Amino acid sequence: MHEFAAVDLTQSYILSWHVEPGALVIDIDVYLTEEHPFYEKPRPAEKICIRPAFIEFPLCDDITLSGGAPGSTAEVAESLGHGVIEGLRRHDDGRYEINGEFGTVFVTAERPLLRLKGP
Q1: pTM for the full model?
Q2: Which of 12, 86, 93, 95 has the fewest beta carbons under 10 Å from its own?
Q3: CA 69, 74, 78: angle at the middle one, nearest 5?
Q4: Measured between alpha carbons, how far is 56 from 30 in angstroms, rounded to an integer?
Q5: Burial class, 55, CB count within 10 angstroms (exposed 0-12 / middle 13-18 / buried 19+)
Q6: Residue 66 DSSP symbol
């Protein structure tokens, strides 16, 4: 499932996770494909277009780490590591599953939003 057009999450890197009032926010270096409106040709030392961004899950009710100890949403978010995303998909029950080097995380929230950071 592609939640975000012209973005390749499998080549994106999660830097941190945190909870804001009513939302889970993931700080990420996101890979933009050439079709993305903010794509820029990579510099000579770079091979791909990476931009700093946030993935926000609004109205986040719950975050669960597969096989992890239960805790508050903020505690679970703080315990999550960084790393490359292997997949993001939505289950029939409405939960989102994010898996990668940090493990498998289930998020109960509204549809995620991608926000690129300013210049």
Answers
A1: 0.88
A2: 93
A3: 75
A4: 13
A5: buried
A6: T
Closest CA to 53 of 81, 12, 104: 12
- Could you read off the pLDDT of 43-78 as tens digits, one per residue? 888 889 999 999 999 999 889 888 776 667 778 888
Cα separation of 45 and 90, whole Å?
A: 36
Q: Which residues pair with 79 in a beta bridge?
A: none
| Ranges of each domain in the chain | 7-116
Q: Calculate the alpha carbon distances from 33 to 1, 21, 41, 72, 84 in Å.
A: 16, 31, 10, 36, 17
**And the tokens for 116?**
């690129």
With contact defined as beta carbons under 8 Å apart, do 6 and 39 qualify? yes
